[in-house]
Specification:
Length: 416
Amino acid sequence: MRQRGAFEHLARLQGAIGRQLERQLQPGIQAHLIQHPHQIRQLGIIQADLRNEMSRSYLEYAMSVIVGRALPDARDGLKPVHRRILYAMYELGLTSDRPYRKCARVVGEVLGKYHPHGDTAVYDALVRMAQDFSMRLPLIDGHGNFGSVDNDPPAAMRYTESRLQALTTDSLLEDIESETVDFIDNFDGSQQEPTVMPARIPQLLLNGSTGIAVGMATNIPPHNLTELIDGLLAMIANPEIDDQQLMAIIPGPDFPTGGQIVSSEGITEAYESGRGAFKVRATAVVEKVTSRKQGIVITELPYNIGPEKIVEKIADLVKAKKIQGISDIVDLSDGQNGTKVVVEIKNGYEPGEVLENLYRLTPMEDAFSINAVALVAGKPQTLGLKELLQVFIDHRIEVFESQGISEEFLFLCQEE
């Protein structure tokens, strides 16, 4: 005990002596360097204005987060972590016609070769690409517990298995070995990774994206693939097509969890400018739920709203007596049959009025804000619907041209 106290006192004394010596020597060192500026260069000291240095360093950090993590590329709709996961699975041969492989194996491959960050970030990104309630058309075929719409966590990566969906192989990775896109060195120069996928579908609009960067964020909803393809064909046939004509083909988002869009005004604004907001309502019908009572049956909910959250909110409102006429709530939702929440109405109450109160007081009606920010030529831009589709068309043209040049070069080599 005494020895430890002595060491503590010695450390305090050494620190005090060091600080005193620094105060004594600092002015002399500064004066010497001012008189002999050539020694500044010899010592490797760089003189810089603090404000300029802080501004430059923060800008570099911000751009690193924006380009390297948070925002998707407008061409293939993927962030770097998603692109690296899909490419690593492709390299492992985990196509739709091959057996599933443990997610831990995939995460290890991604970390070791392409993405030197935390394993949790990689696994979370992999899980989301396998969730049919998060993505309109999932890119990964998951086997095991991959979470639920109620925010239940997935099983640990050592238990779950995965492989690529057939759509992913055919629409995102097709011709990637034909020099259709550029490759760059990975973090240690030992591997090569694609800078973008040779996407054959507008993945960014198909599955949407969300992310928070430094000073900006993105939130793009999912859309219907058939409508997107029809919109692209219309743009190719008529490059001068206006926003209204395009919105007649692509009227709005198409969420994997369903729901009804209440007003299209916010969608029109978002498709024209890249920013807007609209409301989504749950799909519900009034019908007999018992031999004597009517009820409200909810079969679809707004995006990212789970049935458990709705049930808890309704129960809280009934307990607080903020809503009247509800006698029971039953959650019959499951993975096989989808969402089904039954709200039993008391005799003497009008189910339609109760339903309107539920829309007003619960997340059965929820707002969705579109902020279509994506990377174009490595720079973040806010894009409207037509601009997003045009970026994809330009990318496809580049892929076709690269593929044609590659095949012509290969043919010439064979001739020689």
